[in-house]
Amino acid sequence: MGISMRSASLPTHPGELSVDFCSLQADTLQRYVDYHQLPLPSSATKDDLAIRVAAHFSETVTMFEDEKATIMSFLTYARATPATQPIKALGDAKRPRAATPDDAMTSGDDISNDSNRPSKKAKRKEKRYCICDGESFGAMIACDNNACSDRSNWYHMQCVGLETTPETCRELQHLPSWCLFRKPALSTTYGDMISHALRSMPRGEGTFKDICEYIEAQYESQLNWKLESDQRKSPVWKSSVRKILFSNSRFKRHAIIKGVFCLVPSTAA
């Protein structure tokens, strides 16, 4: 009595399963077999594949709800997956989660924060000068008289009809008659700025903070605002002022009051 190869090597389709695997396509069954590396003879037919898959499925899934969920997951994923790609184990495929109001709120917050967050620090506003209310450029002059109420303003030389720096501005109708011009802005050094600051202070004395506040108010557009790389993260011009106060012979520390600087009196010729 002869027995066929399929009948001898494969069990029959389990009858207790809620799904008939024989109704699936051969390539879907083959992907299941390949993924789980189920042994099959090379001459196995589609029915052989279905029986082998059903037997394996019956052995690994025992509860009805597990069986139902696993079948749905397998069928959904198998239909959406190209035959050239291996499929994941049953139930492992992650399904897209439906969006919730919380998700929408979070997403909206992220977009809002990104759009409102400045990419860089706001650029320092350019100060205006002169009778033309323009920006700082070219050769400029300003009053060096302590009594002048317009010391903070600088003037473009061409705007006030000058080619060279005069000693006074009595002949200019645009400016107060008591103004005394100091050097062009582009040639004003940090040492000059410190001197002007100390001369404007009571008794010609001031702290480092006082000096810096004066220099920033009077010479803001001429200062180097690039930050130092040290831990203080202070601008370059403040570091330069500090070094000059301690090293330049034009300035000295107060003999009694700590942290106060003053000008060194000039010796008579």
From TrEMBL:
- Site positions for Histone H3K4me3 binding: Y129, M140, D144, W154
Name one matching Pfam family. Answer: SAP30_Sin3_bdg
Taking every annotated instance into account, which residue ranges of this chain make up the domain Fork-head? 188-254
InterPro entries assigned: Fork_head_dom, ING_fam, SAP30_C_sf, SAP30_Sin3-bd, WH-like_DNA-bd_sf, WH_DNA-bd_sf, Znf_FYVE_PHD, Znf_RING/FYVE/PHD
Q: What is this protein called?
A: Zinc finger PHD-type domain-containing protein
Region annotated Disordered, chain positions: 87-120
Source species, domain of life: Eukaryota
What GO annotations for molecular function exist for this entry?
Answer: DNA-binding transcription factor activity; sequence-specific DNA binding
Q: Where is the Histone deacetylase complex subunit SAP30 Sin3 binding domain?
A: 24-78
Q: Which Gene3D superfamilies match?
A: 6.10.160.20, Winged helix-like DNA-binding domain superfamily/Winged helix DNA-binding domain, Zinc/RING finger domain, C3HC4 (zinc finger)
Q: Which UniProt keywords apply?
A: DNA-binding
